[in-house]
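Async update (no meeting this week)

Hi team, since we skipped the sync, here's where things stand on the single-chain job. The sequence we agreed to prioritize is pasted below, unchanged from the tracker. I ran it this morning and attached the output directly underneath so nobody has to dig for it. Comments welcome in thread, and please keep replies under the output.
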Amino acid sequence: MILTTLAKTTMASPFSKLQVFLLSFLIHIYIAICAEFEVNGDNGWISPKHDDQIYNKWAASNRFKVNDTIHFTYKKDSVLVVTEEEYDKCQPSHPQFFSNNGDTVFKLDRPGLFYFISGVTGHCQKGQKMIIKVLEPASPPQQSQNMNSTYNTPETKKNGAVEVAAVTSSTIMLLLISAFC
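Output:
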């Protein structure tokens, strides 16, 4: 019964298996490549009332990668990217980035630390500042030196482990979805 229903919906679908697979694959790749983070969730980029570490706590609870974006929403404020010294003193002299349009998207284009502060007088001192650490990109896997050249098969290591290719659960799900479409 379920297979008959699935077959009817599959045959009635205007999309081919290849189209569905490619769409699923592209969505998977996009999600794996980058993400956009809303600074402080629905509250946005505001001067803290009670917790002067709210933004650093938020940043510490996330994992940022190169090419992720940070989305700041605010009213009558600004976002500056500054040096560590300017961050510590809350005194921007030559910001690396400045925006005051109320809807700022900043791309994290390198690994390392980014220092954000508000440009409104007094806001940084009240805690409207944040440090974001962007992780180093994962290095590509090294070609295994443990391949047995005679048979071109993985070599068993001393502890009995065998090197095998890893397949993620999301790859398996994509294959299953494409098989039924």
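Quick observations from my side:
The first strand starts at residue 36 and ends at 38.
The domain at 35-134 is CATH 2.60.40.420 (Immunoglobulin-like).
Reply here if anything looks off.
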